[in-house]
Amino acid sequence: MRVLFTSALFCVSSCYSLRADHWGQSKIREYSFDNFVEEFSRDYVRGSDEWAKREALFMQKKHEVLAHNEKGTWMKGTTKFMDYTLAEYKQVLGYKPRGRRSNIGLVSSTAKVTHSGEMPAQYESVQTNSVLGNIVRDQGSCGSCWAEAAAECLEGFLEANADLMSQLASGVHGPPMLSSQALVSCTPNPQHCGGAGGCDGATAELAFDLVMDKGIPLEHDWPYTSGQGQTPSCGPNRFTGPVLKITDYVVLTNDFNAVIEALNTQQAPLAVGTAADGWSLYWSGIFTEDAWEVNHAVLLTGYKMATDTEPGYWRIKNSWGGDWGEEGFMRIDMKTNESIHCGIDTAAHEGIACDGDPDTVEVCGTGGILYDVSYPTGLYLSS
């Protein structure tokens, strides 16, 4: 695959260059647990055991942020996860991809990826004028990242289809967001892929299966209510109105070139899984920590390949709200040998495997970002 260097606008590094300065070390030192409780609307009672427990967690992470920022190339900050236990943070990750793939590369019944041989050195699907692409969801304490990533991926493809976008927008006030709650509540998970589904985790592929079968309604018709960790039941009447459906979807596994080409040829973002154990305090910059336990689903919106003078990165949109990271987005280091930068996830049944799958799996790309990549095809409106 040839790389073409273009003059396309890429506002990412300049857009966030002042973020670390805005929230520098001195302000972090001054930031107290009382400030945190007020900012994130915690209901802890001062003087209670719960207050003491959460304040201790907060102070531990505050020291971690300050120490990291003295020498780090990317910045940590005071995020909503400052008072979370490790178990609570793991629950938010909630990503359980489907275990080992039988084939490396494309997995789909009908959809195909065309290899053109020439790809630009950078691409970004979410532009400043994107209506749906700039909306950052917040999954809350529900492990629904897989559903948010699938819904946002569908929205990216919807926004690339002007006719469908217009049809759906005509019936609602505001952007025609899709209902991630429908995916959380109604997606079957019969093989127990890392959990029981819903807020206990599933996969973007399972969500796409549901959209092929029943479709996905608008957020306007079924808003998100799982933010506190509950999974409301699914009812057949939820799919009686206009729904968006797909004819198929594509899955890419450990194939760097195919992922780059899919972003450029589809002109839309992709749903991906990645290792996110070290993300809770991410604030800005290019995240350089590497791990292989794939345990979180996000939206891959673009990339920039490395040059002689600048590092490369993947750009993703998370579902932790706009107050996390770079206004809800994140940049992850793209290695110069990303296509062969692989490792073994040795804890597959803690975050990857389904019933009967092996305990280990090979994952490639920084943080395993190339292991489980998917996107829909053949969008259409059904009523």
From TrEMBL:
A Pfam entry, by short name: Inhibitor_I29
Biological-process GO terms, alphabetical: proteolysis
SMART domains: Inhibitor_I29 (SM00848), Pept_C1 (SM00645)
Domain of life: Eukaryota
SUPFAM superfamilies: Cysteine proteinases
Domain spans labelled Cathepsin propeptide inhibitor: 33-89
Keywords: Disulfide bond, Signal, Zymogen
Residue stretches making up the Peptidase C1A papain C-terminal domain: 119-352
Cross-referenced InterPro entries: Papain-like_cys_pep_sf, Pept_cys_AS, Peptidase_C1A, Peptidase_C1A_C, Peptidase_C1A_papain-like, Prot_inhib_I29
Signal peptide range in chain numbering: 1-20
Gene Ontology molecular-function annotations: cysteine-type peptidase activity
Entries under PANTHER family matching the protein: CYSTEINE PROTEASE FAMILY C1-RELATED
Family of the protein in this entry: Belongs to the peptidase C1 family.
The name this protein goes by in its record: Uncharacterized protein
Protein source organism: Noctiluca scintillans
Species lineage: Eukaryota, Sar, Alveolata, Dinophyceae, Noctilucales
